[in-house]
Design goal:
Elements lengths: L13 H28 L3 H45 L9 H7 L7 H11 L3 H7 L11
């Protein structure tokens, strides 16, 4: 497994991000073309509409299948980082920190986590700025 750092921390799942996404896009475009041609020729319009609606449903399902687990992971990360901050400082994370900021802070080492958390809250750092400010990267190989 590669060493994880700022430049290599983004995870891409090839089957989802390349294969499924391209197949969905291609099939959606094909269903739109078929719908337009059916309307122009006035043939199989009902079938074309049903095919198009089914593709819209499949695209929605594919997006939700990606978003729901990420939401669950984000909630788990918030709880884990809140516990880690509590163990290190005896206090809870600043409630001003957004979920995206907390998710970005998960890469910080224990030594710099409390200070960077306070800085992120006071300066309202963007998640990318937080990641760039990390000196000792703590890898997270479990996130998809």
């Amino acid at each position: 497994m590669r060493i994880q750092e700022y430049q290599t921390h983004v995870r891409v799942h090839p089957i989802y991000h390349y294969v499924l996404s391209l197949l969905l896009l291609g099939t959606l475009v094909t269903s739109i073309v078929y719908l337009v041609l059916s309307i122009i020729k006035e043939e199989n319009v009902l079938l074309a509409i049903l095919l198009f609606l089914m593709m819209i449903l499949i695209v929605i399902i594919a997006v939700l299948l990606r978003l729901y687990p990420l939401k669950a992971q984000d909630r788990a990360i918030r709880a884990e980082e809140n516990l880690r901050y509590y163990v290190l400082t005896g206090e809870l994370l600043d409630p001003k920190l957004s979920l995206a900021q907390v998710v970005a802070l998960r890469f910080t080492s224990d030594n710099e986590f409390p200070e960077l958390s306070k800085r992120a809250a006071t300066e309202n750092l963007q998640p990318d700025e937080i990641k760039k400010a990390i000196q000792n990267w703590r890898a997270d190989y479990n996130r998809i």
